[in-house]
Design goal:
Elements (H helix, E strand, L loop, with lengths): L4 H8 L9 H5 L1 H9 L7 E5 L8 E7 L2 E7 L5 E5 L14 E3 L3 E2 L6 E2 L5 E3 L18 E5 L2 E5 L8 H11 L7 E11 L3 H8 L5 H4 L1 H7 L12 H9 L7 E2 L6 E7 L28 E7 L3 E5 L4 E10 L2 E11 L10 H26 L14 H21 L1
Antiparallel strand pairs: 1-10, 2-3, 2-5, 3-4, 6-7, 7-8, 9-10, 11-17, 12-13, 13-14, 14-15, 15-16, 16-17
Bound molecules: FE2/S2 (inorganic) cluster and fe (ii) ion (FE2).
Length: 400
């Protein structure tokens, strides 16, 4: 583990029920370890199939110095490749998203098919075989329309996550939604603090008045009263499932949550954000389905739209939070939905969370910081921390 020995010492100082040692949150060494080792050993959420809806649509996912092209082929398969030309290595896709009939390297115009095969390379020697110079693949899994990547040659299992999440989100039919827009919001905090903040609603009563007026605070570590009548309705349309909460060391949580105050979607006023409903819904529904995965995503599925969130660290104290809003592919802007209304609730909530994560990071930067004790209702924060620590230790083992 040359170079990362101090990380092992820091991980050894993890305490049950407590936050991590300071340097794991704020140091450049921990950022390098996280992006070069830990986060490469796990599956990361990147985007949905709707982000690459048509053949030739590409989406570039970046993690520190690594860049990966996710692209839809003519056969409608979604594949991932390292964003590095097989000639002399230049970056091929320079835009974050786009559409191209083929992937052409801007340097000397080597040209690849959407399936990664090298199609054209000028003036190469006779013994050069194009078949040996296709783009290098990256492990990709389509989880009910959510695209996950693993940057390791040895990806860990994903089968149970795939089965559980697909079973519940298939009805939302992500292939037939469209991305209205995505916000790329840079938070001034370490990625682990942004994740910790996402995993509790201890701060919601004071911190998110708009969010809790439609979402309530149940299901985020606080107990929800069970409503038998609702379950009967959900059964009738095939959306009644038990809570799944990071089972057997797996890394997913899925919960259908009743909305509050008569809200029928996660919008700023609780009113429909898109008139064209999605999934099995023929009438507004007073619940939404939420999916959380370790270590970098969460998603909300409403009767009229879907909103997905992915996190990627940019530096020790900067994190990209990418939020995407999806509606029915036939929905018409200005007729069925108003983009500002659609996005208002989570834009506001993201800003509030960005503030909390920022003051958390700044406070932890103090010499006087002491590992703090989690509240009872911060159990899911500790689940995230435990995932981080156990996978960090396991990843260290593989390089020692
Ligand atoms: S580096 Fe891509 S064509 Fe030369
Ligand atoms: Fe929050």
């Amino acid at each position: 583990m040359s170079g990362f020995a101090p990380i092992a010492d820091l991980l050894a100082r993890d305490r049950k029920g407590h936050t991590l040692p300071r340097e794991l949150y704020v140091s450049d060494e921990a950022f390098e370890f996280d992006t070069q080792v830990m986060l490469k050993s796990v599956w990361l959420y990147a985007c949905t199939v709707a982000h690459v809806k048509n053949p030739g649509d590409f989406f570039v996912f970046e993690l520190a110095h690594n860049s990966i092209i996710i692209v839809r082929g003519r056969d409608m398969q979604v594949r991932a490749f390292w964003n590095s030309c097989r000639h002399r290595g230049a970056k091929i896709c320079l835009e974050q998203r786009g559409r191209a009939p083929r992937l052409m390297c801007p340097y000397h115009q080597w040209t690849y098919g959407l399936d990664g095969q090298l199609l054209a390379a000028r003036s190469m020697a006779d013994d050069f075989d194009k078949a040996d110079h296709g783009l290098s693949p990256v492990a990709l899994e389509n989880v009910g329309g959510l695209i996950f990547l693993c940057l390791s040659d040895n990806p860990p299992p994903i089968d149970r996550v795939k089965a559980d999440i697909s079973a519940q989100i298939a009805v939302y039919d992500l292939e037939n939604l469209k991305v209205v827009f995505q916000d790329n919001y840079i938070e001034d905090a370490n990625w682990k603090l942004v994740m910790e903040n996402n995993r509790e609603c201890y701060h919601c009563d004071v911190g998110h008045p708009e969010l809790i007026s439609v979402l309530g605070t149940t299901g985020f570590g606080k107990d929800a009263p069970d409503d038998a009548a609702k379950h009967e309705q959900w059964k009738a349309i095939g959306i009644d499932h038990d809570l799944i909460e990071f089972p057997d060391g797996w890394w997913h949580r899925i919960a259908r949550l009743a909305l509050a105050n008569g809200a029928v979607t996660q919008s700023i006023d609780g009113k429909l954000a898109c008139q064209k409903l999605i999934g099995p819904f023929t009438a507004p529904e007073t619940s939404s389905l939420s999916v959380w995965t370790q270590p970098n995503s969460w998603h909300h599925f409403c009767c009229d739209h879907v909103v997905t969130f992915s996190l990627t660290p940019i530096s020790a104290d900067k994190t990209l939070l990418r939020t995407s809003w999806l509606v029915h592919e036939d929905a018409i802007e200005g007729v069925d939905f108003d983009p500002d209304h659609l996005a208002a609730l989570w834009r506001k909530t993201n800003q509030q969370d960005g503030y909390f994560s920022m003051i958390n990071h700044r406070g932890i930067s103090n010499d006087g910081y002491i590992q703090g004790r989690y509240a009872v209702e911060e159990k899911l924060v500790e689940d995230f921390k435990n995932f981080y620590v156990s996978h960090a230790k396991a990843a260290l083992e593989t390089i020692s």
